[in-house]
């Protein structure tokens, strides 16, 4: 905590002195300010370079410019659409590193309005200097900073509504009861529900005696809910001090409209300040601070999970007092003693089997507030060492990030009342009540699952840049980089430490060569193997500067080739040891339920792992080629990248490489197998982005298309398989495996003549029939085959901008192709006493066996039917219309003579449309808050 208080003290002190520092100098040295203004600047690893000199698989997004025409909700909203290579990962590799202003941070703690630029580092040479934890790509977020200008205030206000896309479709109570009876008969049992109960339930004349609960009805849900926010930014400065500050608040409501849940909300307050100071002609200092207060208040009801599981006939949650027999004094006394009379006319219903329910909980179980607090502080120093050597700098940066999460809750208990019904003269009345549970209001607030996370960052570097004879451009850098993250309850910290070196040269911005390397250090390995080596080389050529292209249509053209090896420890982990420490050491422990007499009653000794003193880094080995350029005065611009390589040395317990007696099968288990660097994955793919600009009169248009295709296949695996079709080698690493379905069993004779399916339960007509892949007469796990990949190999993004006078139109769509998935959630795999969704209407019966789309209904486990197979497989191909916005910039002449510098209004919509054969499935959330379309109106003004 002392670091936080120190950081706050520094920020407060700087804030009080900023005006004094600003006033010290009135004249601006324009030559010094523009000395490096060669072109648009881009942040890359530990330096800033001219955009035209980018090499080695790097993409850049000007977020500040984008937000002028497209208000967005999240910091990564544009990342996957505007440039190629991103698909929730970078070049098919998960676990990308996020760096905010040079510090390892969370992307969700930075709002788009605060961001100036995002740089995506994809190739090996681009990520090398960040060390081991950057091996799978880096997203660099650069927040806005002050400028040499008069103070400017910018205010943005947004308000909009979330409208649900769709809800799951579950059967009503009478249909559920009818089909559940059918399932009972299918299993050779007697029906559970009487025809009388089903009839009266279908009539809905008394939904309290014969419940028919629909948790997705308008009785409990709103048609829409609001999200509003306001953000203010202040920026300005002179040559001595530049500052940028922002502060804002947003609040979002809830779709629920029942009990205390109707007041559920999320709110976030944040403030950020970035200050740059020139203390001396050779000394610059920057100080940044950010604080976020996030609260999410909700009634203590698990609404959405219950909506997906609570059967419609299970309970009537609210029962009118008017249905109590007026002569039943004990029941009236019990209800009146309750503190949970709803709206003066309902009491909480229940049963002996259902002593709680989400509706009752929304009224009576109390409330909880999820609380998140985050403080971030950075400081950095730049020392110009030209007194020692012209062009030499020393730079150092330090940052801390403290986050804590906890829950504040009032945890009430409540009683429910199970009615006994009678009918007097044709009128239903409650003759008595059984009470389950106790009404108790919590008198103290509980603090639950308090956790914290502390991260610190440090980097220091010497860098040297020099231009000789206006054509030889030299850059050299040595950098030390470290960051460490501490989690409460975790003994080991997540750490990254490395030394880096970069040597770069270009001749007249025409011929380029770059050598970047790192020496990562990791405590995950034996002492002799803890220091790694990550060398990379990049060559670049700008042929547009050659004589043979001097009069061509090309404005710019850059060809780069990069290659190298990144040593990393990111995937050094195992079940039960996700941090990955000590996996090189053997594990010996007590185990077993029996003991040895000569050990004085001690239990047996188990070996859980052998020792490997040679365990070392995993190697990302890669070659990538890039081509970037523009034509016809930037009417067409493009960026292409191709990559090929491998991940060499992923760890595994190599059962197939050691005799089987190295592992004890049975109880107690024991093994002396060590973890080895053995598995290899082959990686290849390409990404691209193309932009076309066209003007027709006063209409300016831009069309952008970007995309990526990636393949990651297993090249070597430790396998012990009986059949070739079971090998993972040559298959995608994100593979889906399962059985091949060949229809339903339509008769007992077919079952008897077919291979035996051994997955449990009695096989009956209407069960799924599988192919015997190996011809052994048995259907078991040995008959599983490769069915596809669950991720998306091909990702496309399209964005379009049209500007006419003061109107700007922007639209963005995203495409995903080539992936597959299993419909294996509770909405589809229905067995036992599960809730029935609409899919069961296509069930197999004797009458529907020729057109059935779903197996027979069962009240048992359904182990044969509900397992991964191509019966449940679907394609995830889709196109999403992600965002549409229309903006209007009010003419400046309107505000002449006022304090208003500019004002714009806009309307926008998000997640409008999904085009897919599986649209209903893709837009349906089961067990969680529904997906929504968001419609927004906004106003932005500058003063």
Structure description:
The chain has 943 residues and is mainly beta. Helices cover 10% and strands 45% of the residues. The chain has a 22-stranded antiparallel β-barrel. A 5-stranded mixed sheet has the order 3-6-7-4-5. The longest helix has 22 residues, at 2-23. 34% of the residues are buried. This is SusC/RagA family TonB-linked outer membrane protein. InterPro entries: Plug_dom (IPR012910), Plug_dom_sf (IPR037066), TonB-dep_OMP_SusC/RagA (IPR023996), TonB-dep_OMP_SusC/RagA_CS (IPR023997).
**Uncertain runs with pLDDT below 50, 5 residues or more?**
1-38
User: Could you give the distance between the termini?
Assistant: 38 Å
Number of strands: 45
- Give the oligomeric state: single chain
Mean pLDDT: 91
Tell me the helix content: under 10%
- Main sheet: strands, sense, barrel: 22 strands, antiparallel, barrel
- Distinct helical segment count: 12
Radius of gyration: 33 Å
Portion in beta strands: over 45%
What is the overall silhouette? globular
- Content-based structural category: mainly beta
């Amino acid at each position: 905590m002392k670091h936080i208080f120190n950081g706050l003290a520094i920020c407060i002190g700087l804030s009080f002195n900023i005006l004094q520092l600003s006033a010290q100098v009135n004249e601006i040295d324009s030559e010094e300010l523009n000395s490096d203004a060669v072109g648009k600047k881009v942040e890359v690893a530990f330096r800033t370079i001219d955009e035209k000199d980018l090499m080695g698989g790097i993409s850049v997004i000007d977020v500040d410019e984008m937000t002028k025409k497209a208000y967005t909700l999240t910091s990564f909203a544009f990342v996957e659409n505007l440039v190629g290579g991103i698909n929730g990962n970078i070049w098919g590799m998960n676990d990308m590193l996020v760096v905010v202003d040079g510090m390892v941070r969370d992307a969700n703690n930075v709002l788009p309005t605060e961001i100036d630029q995002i740089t995506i580092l994809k190739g090996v040479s681009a990520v090398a200097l960040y060390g081991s934890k950057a091996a799978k790509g880096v997203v660099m977020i650069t927040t806005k900073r002050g400028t040499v200008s008069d103070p400017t205030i910018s205010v943005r206000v947004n308000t909009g509504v979330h409208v649900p896309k769709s809800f799951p479709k579950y059967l009503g109570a009478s249909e559920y009861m009818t089909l559940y009876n059918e399932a009972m008969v299918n299993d050779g049992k007697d029906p559970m529900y009487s025809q009388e109960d089903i009839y009266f339930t279908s009539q809905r004349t008394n939904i309290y005696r014969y419940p028919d609960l629909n948790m997705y009805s308008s009785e409990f849900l709103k048609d829409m809910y609001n999200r509003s926010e306001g953000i203010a930014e202040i920026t300005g400065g002179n040559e001595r001090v530049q500052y940028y500050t922002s502060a804002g608040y947003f609040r979002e409501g809830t779709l629920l409209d029942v009990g205390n849940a109707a007041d559920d909300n999320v709110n976030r307050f944040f403030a950020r300040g970035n200050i740059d100071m020139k203390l001396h002609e050779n000394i610059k200092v920057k100080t940044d601070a950010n604080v976020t207060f996030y609260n999410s208040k909700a009634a203590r009801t698990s609404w959405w999970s219950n909506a997906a599981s609570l059967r419609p006939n299970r309970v009537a949650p609210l029962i009118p007092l008017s249905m109590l027999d007026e002569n039943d004094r004990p029941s009236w006394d019990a209800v009146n003693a309750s503190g949970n009379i709803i709206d003066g006319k309902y009491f909480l219903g229940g049963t002996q089997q259902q002593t709680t329910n989400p509706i009752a909980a929304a009224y009576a179980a109390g409330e909880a507030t999820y609380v998140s607090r985050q403080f971030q502080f950075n400081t950095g120093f730049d020392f110009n060492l030209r007194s020692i050597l012209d062009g030499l700098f020393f730079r150092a940066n330090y940052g801390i990030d403290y986050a804590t999460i906890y829950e504040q809750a009032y945890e009430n208990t409540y009683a429910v009342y199970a009615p006994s019904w009678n009918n007097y003269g044709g009128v239903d009345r409650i003759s008595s009540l059984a009470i389950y549970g106790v009404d108790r209001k919590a008198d103290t607030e509980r603090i639950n699952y308090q956790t914290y996370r502390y991260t610190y960052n440090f980097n220091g570097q010497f860098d040297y840049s020099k231009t000789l004879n206006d054509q030889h451009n030299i850059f050299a850098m040595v950098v030390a980089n470290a960051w460490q993250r501490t989690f409460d309850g975790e003994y080991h910290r997540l750490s990254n430490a490395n030394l880096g070196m970069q040597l770069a040269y270009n001749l007249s911005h025409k011929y380029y060569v770059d050598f970047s390397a790192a020496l990562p250090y990791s405590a995950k390995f034996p002492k002799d193997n803890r220091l790694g080596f990550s060398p990379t080389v990049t060559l670049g050529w700008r042929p547009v500067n050659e004589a043979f292209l001097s009069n061509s249509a090309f404005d710019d053209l850059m060809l780069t080739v990069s290659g190298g090896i990144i040593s990393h420890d990111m995937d050094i982990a195992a079940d039960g040891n996700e941090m990955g420490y000590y996996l090189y050491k053997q594990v010996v422990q007590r185990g077993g339920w029996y003991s040895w007499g000569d050990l004085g009653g001690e239990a047996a000794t188990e070996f859980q792992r052998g020792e490997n003193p040679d365990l070392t880094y995993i190697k990302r080995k890669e070659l990538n080629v890039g081509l970037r350029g523009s034509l016809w005065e930037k009417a067409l611009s493009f960026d292409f990248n191709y990559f090929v390589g491998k991940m060499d040395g992923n760890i595994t317990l190599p059962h197939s490489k050691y005799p089987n007696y190295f592992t004890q099968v049975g109880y107690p288990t024991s093994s002396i197998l060590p973890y080895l660097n053995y598995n290899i994955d082959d990686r290849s793919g390409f990404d691209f982005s193309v932009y076309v600009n066209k003007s027709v009169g006063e209409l300016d248009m831009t069309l952008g298309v970007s995309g990526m295709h990636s393949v990651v296949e297993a090249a070597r695996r430790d396998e012990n398989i009986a059949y070739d079709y079971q090998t993972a080698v040559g298959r995608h690493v994100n593979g889906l495996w399962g059985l091949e379905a060949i229809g339903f069993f339509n008769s007992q004779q077919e079952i008897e003549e077919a291979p035996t399916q051994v997955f449990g339960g009695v096989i009956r007509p209407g069960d799924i029939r599988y192919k015997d892949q190996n011809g052994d007469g048995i259907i078991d796990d040995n008959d599983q085959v490769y069915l596809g990949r669950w991720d998306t190999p091909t990702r496309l993004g399209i964005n379009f901008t049209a500007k006419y006078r003061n109107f700007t139109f922007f639209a963005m769509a995203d495409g995903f192709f080539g992936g597959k998935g299993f419909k294996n959630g509770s909405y589809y795999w229905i067995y036992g006493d599960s809730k029935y969704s609409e899919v069961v209407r296509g069930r197999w019966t004797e009458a529907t066996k020729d057109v059935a789309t779903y197996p027979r209904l069962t009240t048992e486990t359904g182990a044969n039917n509900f397992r991964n197979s191509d019966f449940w497989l679907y394609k995830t191909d889709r196109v999403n219309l992600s965002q549409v916005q229309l903006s209007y910039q009010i003419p400046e002449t309107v505000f002449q003579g006022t304090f208003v510098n500019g004002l714009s209004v806009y309307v926008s919509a998000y997640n409008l449309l999904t085009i897919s054969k599986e649209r209903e499935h893709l837009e349906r959330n089961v067990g969680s808050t529904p997906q929504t379309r968001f419609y927004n109106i906004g106003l932005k003004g500058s003063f």
